[in-house]
Specification:
The complex is a heterodimer of chains A (139) and B (332). Chain A is an alpha/beta fold and 139 residues long. Chain A contains 2 helices and 7 strands, in the order E-H-E-H-E-E-E-E-E. Helix content of chain A is 18%, strand content 26%. Chain A starts with a strand and ends with a strand. Helices cover 43% and strands 20% of the residues of chain B. A 5-stranded mixed β-sheet of chain B has the order 3-2-1-4-5, with helices on both faces. In chain B, strands 8-7-6-9-10 form a 5-stranded mixed β-sheet, with helices on both faces. Classes of the chains: A alpha/beta (139), B alpha/beta (332).
Chain lengths: 139, 332
């Protein structure tokens, strides 16, 4: 499914639609360059799970941010991570468990992420426009 | 009263001996920048392994430089969060072990509180004051009304200011950490060459640096031949403008007339100068810790720990490190 976003609000709303469809054990892989809107859409997904949007900030610094929401929420950002280090992050402890994982820069995780996950590709099309392509989930 | 401070929240292993929360007897910082530079950022697993290697030598050196032995100490103060969980764990476990073996009281210190107390190592700001903490992991403002009376009034909604520096340095093709690199490049660039956006969120004192980062990326793609010095200078001007403007707004809104700057990014030369100039213009007092106390260090943890210890805030062994913890949260 391909959607157009014309603002940060649109991107957050699309995130909310995704969040409403998620269940424990789901993993959402986000793909897109710097500034594509990955953290913004994560805010929307998290808000559907009862987390305040303001509490979701970039996780590039800490790599894995855990939230004590009714369904545990893990915001993972692999921006800084490369190659061999991935296997040492212990991603398997989060994926497919009792919580929901959103992974930014998911392409860097390689084989650490099992197939058949939900994937969301974001592309910045200039100004505030973004193209968002969702696979593995019906909205 | 001598307090041993221990700080391992991110990529620097540090230990310090501080007397009466004020006199720095030693402040040893072992930086891991060299290791992380090749990865363009901190790699948590590498950071915690390095902390394990360095913690004993760093503590030994802090004690020998201070001419003190463990039996001279009144307490051990350690930062328990926020930070990288694996890194924090090393300092927390080390402090607990040392405390158990040598029967020394333990004092848990919030890392952000440590940053605020770095100002008390060189001066004595009166309460209340505005604390602006700007680093790679944090960009927040607090009103500090007294010891242990902290009110958060603004924070970043996306990237921390230091993180924006790191990301912009990386997209310009430079290494890590981005702060000093951009600061140096900016010296020979024109801060008005490019007009990058200043994100000021309405009806809030929060920050946002994500749009600025995107706008630098878009600009560099459209103008591949633009002078990197100009991009650095214009980017830095946008960050500093927002930090200064928000601090002044906060002081005005809350009726505060003192600002304490802290955190790694407050070592940035333009930010220091701009805050000092703006404060002078607005008749505000400003406290700028020296650069070595702006970046992560254990002396600030010992200084904050001293004030807790005097008030009887002792921690027990059940305390665990916390990657995310707001300043002012209760701890064990």
């Amino acid at each position: 499914m391909r959607l157009q976003s014309k603002s940060d609000d649109d991107t957050r709303n699309i995130g909310r639609l995704i969040g409403n469809r998620l269940k424990p054990g789901d993993t959402v892989c986000l793909f897109g360059d710097l500034g594509a809107g990955k953290t913004t859409i994560t805010k929307g997904i998290a808000s559907a799970l009862g987390i305040e949007e303001r509490d979701i900030t970039s996780a590039s610094f800490t790599i894995i941010a855990e939230y004590d929401s009714p369904i545990p929420f893990y915001h993972i950002d692999l921006y800084r991570v490369s190659g061999d280090d991935i296997s040492e992050l212990g991603l398997h402890e989060y994926l497919g468990g009792d919580g929901i994982c959103v992974i930014e820069w998911a392409e860097r995780a390689g084989s650490e992420i099992p197939d058949a996950q939900i994937s969301v590709r974001l592309e910045h099309k200039g100004d505030n426009c973004r193209e968002i392509e969702i696979e593995g989930l019906e909205l | 009263m001598l307090i041993l401070g221990i700080e391992t929240s991110c990529d620097d292993t540090s230990a310090a001996v501080v007397e009466d929360g004020k006199i720095i007897k030693s402040n040893i910082v072992s930086s891991q920048d060299e290791i992380h530079t090749q990865y363009g950022g901190i790699v948590p697993e590498l950071a915690s392994r390095k902390h394990i290697e360095m913690i004993w030598p760093v503590v030994d050196k802090a004690l020998s430089t201070a001419n003190a032995s463990l039996s001279d100490l009144s307490a051990i103060a350690f930062s328990y969060g926020p930070g990288l969980i694996g890194s924090l764990l090393v300092g927390v476990c080390f402090s607990k072990s040392l405390s158990l073996v040598h029967s020394l009281p333990l004092v848990a210190v919030n890392h952000l509180e440590g940053h605020i107390f770095s100002a008390f190592l060189e001066s004595s700001p009166s309460f209340p004051f505005l604390a602006l903490i700007v680093s790679g992991g944090h960009t927040s403002m607090y009103i500090i009304r007294d010891f242990n009376k902290y009110e958060e009034i603004g924070r970043t909604r996306d990237d921390a200011a230091g993180e924006a520096y790191d990301k912009v340095a990386k997209l310009l093709g430079f290494g890590y950490p981005g702060g000093p690199i951009i600061d140096n490049l900016a010296i020979s660039g024109d801060p008005e060459a490019i007009s990058f956006p200043r994100a000021l969120i309405r009806d809030s004192l929060d920050f946002s640096f994500s749009g600025l980062k995107t706008s630098v990326l878009t600009y560099t793609r459209k103008n591949p031949d633009a002078k990197k010095e100009d991009i650095a200078a214009s980017f830095q001007a946008a960050v500093v403008d927002v930090l200064v403007q928000r601090s002044l707004e906060a002081c005005k809104a809350k009726g505060i007339d003192r600002i304490v700057l802290s955190g790694g990014v407050s070592a940035n030369s333009l930010l220091r100068k701009s805050v000092a100039d703006a404060a002078e213009g607005a008749a505000l007092e400003v406290y700028l810790p020296s650069k070595r106390l702006c970046t992560d260090n254990a002396a600030m943890i010992a200084a904050a720990g001293y004030h807790h210890f005097r008030r009887g805030n002792i921690s027990n062994f059940s305390l665990n490190p916390k990657a995310y913890v707001h300043l002012g949260s209760a701890h064990g």
